[in-house]
Amino acid sequence: MSSQKPSLIFALVVGLALAVGIAVDPAPAVAKEKIKVLYHVDGKDLATATYAMALINKHIEAEGGPENIDVKLVVHGPALELFKADSVDPKLKAKLKSAMDKGASAEMCQVSMKLFGTPLEKLVAGFLPTEHPVAVKRIADLQREGYIYIKP
User: Fold this and answer.
1) Is residue 21 assigned to a domain?
2) How far apart are CA 30 and CA 111, in angstroms?
3) Which end of the chain is more exposed for a tag (fewer CB within 10 A), N or C?
């Protein structure tokens, strides 16, 4: 019987190790990477800009909230006129604010602000200047960083 004792102990140890291995997941939880999306608005059509803001809001909701999506809105050219604080369409302003409240960031082209003589302070609250003065360069940089490009 003494020759069976080591085998029995070995079997118990192996069985215990297997039981613990099954009960405890050795793989650490992997954080879900946020989807990165770039929305581009450059035309002065109010309906298109309003539609873009609606899409951003729906996209954030569809991904399950701001914890799952990183949205950047880049605006330049004639679209700047749509976002002037003193003349912005109330519906456009509300949809933009809603998107920013959900975590979207909005950038206005620095060159466009100079060309249109409109400093950041005269735009709807929340806009930041583009990280690069030229919006198309900023857009290309974001795409290089893995942002998915959407132009409504």
Assistant:
1) no
2) 41
3) N
The tally of domains found in the chain comes to 1
Chain-centre distance for alpha carbon 26 = 31
Token representation of residue 149:
């490009």
CA pair distance 100, 65, nearest whole angstrom: 12
> Can you give the pLDDT at residue 34?
96
Percentage above 90 pLDDT, the chain: 79
The domain that contains 105 carries what CATH number? Answer: 3.40.1260.10
- Judged on CB neighbours under 10 Å (0-12, 13-18, 19+), 142 is buried
Q: Domain of residue 73: give its range.
A: 35-150
pTM of the predicted structure, to 2 decimals: 0.80
How far is Cα 58 from Cα 104, in angstroms, rounded to an integer? 12
Q: What is the mean pLDDT of residues 18-47?
A: 77
Report if residue 91 sits inside a domain: yes
| Per-residue pLDDT reduced to its tens digit, 41-94 | 999 999 999 999 999 999 999 999 999 999 999 999 999 999 999 999 999 999
Please check whether residue 9 lies inside any domain of the structure: no
Is 28 contained in some domain?
Answer: no
- Position 32 scores a pLDDT of 80
